[in-house]
């Protein structure tokens, strides 16, 4: 899409988003602003922090009733958090988060029950610096773009591995940080967890915001790719969470709903058993530190044929699957609250 085509699309619809291709962060922000402008009684755009390079971390808050607009500490409605883009190269996750937001907001009457069941928070891109870097320099870049003292300490490794900037954002949260062997002490490696927990402004901003609202947040969902796995805490240990069976029951129903859409199969299990032990993850932190009962990490399409380079033609099919899954989760959570 050239500049003229983009401007025509903005003039016609008010935003450049298409879900037919992977968009830059500026397009996503423009779409979020469009939602806030078009639905002022239901949508707020919150800036919860900034990246190392100064990009804003934008969160969509969607509330279907005026009474939901008040502070979550005062409202009775549960809050659901969904984020994507924690790793720069996982483009599909950000598109899916925005698709879910779009369906609930722009097609509210069609999905009224789901929309009304909670106050929804969407963070489409948790790592904007990394996301933009994958568009401009290195398509497979994973980490943030922060610079630490240790990042420039080994010139030989820097020559071997390339740029040594950045931290794996999904190993930077303050819950059993740095305990596992998967956390590399080498800043040149993708698995570098940082010099300390919450060293990254992105992780700090997410942590601060969720802790401020943790009493009302009942579900935390972080999207990743790839492998089609539905991960349940814990990541840092092979032990399972005390309420694992209930979280698994919810996840299996959601995975079953996914399979009914296009036949995609998602494995359900603990993070450490389906993947490998990893400490300092967002989903572990959300459950262990923020005490959010329903905490999941969902690895989206595919199973490896394309991997991180998932074609844009699979954006909508992937998003439709996860939307249906979130619909199931929201309904189950609402029904449990009633009993």
TrEMBL record:
GO CC terms: extracellular space
Location of the Peptidase M14 domain: 21-333
Protein's cellular compartments: Secreted
Assigned keywords, A-Z: Carboxypeptidase, Disulfide bond, Hydrolase, Metal-binding, Metalloprotease, Protease, Secreted, Zinc
Keyword Ribosomal protein in record: no
GO biological process entries: proteolysis
Family annotation (InterPro entries): CARBOXYPEPT_ZN_1 (IPR057246), Peptidase_M14 (IPR000834)
An example Gene Ontology molecular-function term: metallocarboxypeptidase activity
Cofactors demanded by this protein: Zn(2+)
CDD domains: M14_CP_A-B_like (cd03860)
Similarity comment: Belongs to the peptidase M14 family.
Function according to Swiss-Prot or TrEMBL: Involved in the digestion of the blood meal.
Protein name as catalogued: Peptidase M14 domain-containing protein
Organism whose genome encodes this protein: Polyplax serrata (Common mouse louse)
């Amino acid at each position: 899409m050239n500049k003229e085509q983009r401007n025509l699309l903005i003039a016609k619809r008010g935003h450049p988003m298409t879900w037919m291709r992977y968009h830059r962060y500026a397009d996503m922000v423009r779409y979020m602003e469009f939602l806030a402008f078009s639905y002022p009684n239901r949508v707020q755009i919150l800036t919860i922090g900034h990246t190392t390079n100064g990009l804003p971390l934008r969160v969509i808050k969607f509330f279907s009733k005026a009474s939901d607009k008040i502070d979550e500490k005062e409202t009775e409605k549960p809050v659901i958090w969904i984020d994507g883009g924690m790793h720069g190269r996982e483009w599909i996750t950000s598109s899916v988060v925005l698709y879910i937001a779009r369906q609930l907001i722009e097609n509210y009457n069609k999905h009224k029950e789901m929309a009304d069941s909670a106050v929804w928070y969407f963070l489409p891109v948790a790592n904007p610096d990394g996301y933009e870097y994958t568009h401009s320099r290195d398509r497979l870049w994973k980490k943030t773009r922060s610079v630490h003292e240790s990042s420039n300490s080994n010139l030989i490794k820097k020559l071997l591995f390339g740029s040594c900037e950045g931290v794996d954002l999904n190993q930077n949260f303050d819950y059993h940080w740095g305990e596992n062997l998967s956390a590399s002490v080498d800043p040149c490696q993708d698995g570098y967890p940082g010099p300390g927990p919450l060293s990254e402004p992105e992780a700090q901003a997410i942590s601060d915001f969720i802790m401020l609202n943790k009493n009302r947040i009942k579900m935390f969902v972080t999207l990743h790719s790839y492998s089609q796995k539905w991960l349940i805490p814990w990541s840092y240990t092979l032990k399972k969470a005390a309420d694992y069976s209930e979280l698994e029951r919810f996840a299996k129903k959601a995975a079953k709903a996914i399979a009914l859409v296009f036949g995609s199969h998602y494995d359900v299990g603990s993070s450490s058993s389906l993947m490998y032990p990893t400490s300092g993850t967002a989903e572990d932190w959300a459950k262990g530190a923020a005490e959010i009962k329903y905490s999941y990490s969902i690895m989206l399409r595919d199973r490896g044929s394309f991997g991180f380079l998932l074609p844009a033609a699979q954006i909508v099919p992937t998003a439709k699957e996860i939307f249906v899954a979130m619909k199931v989760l929201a309904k189950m959570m609402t029904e449990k609250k009633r009993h």
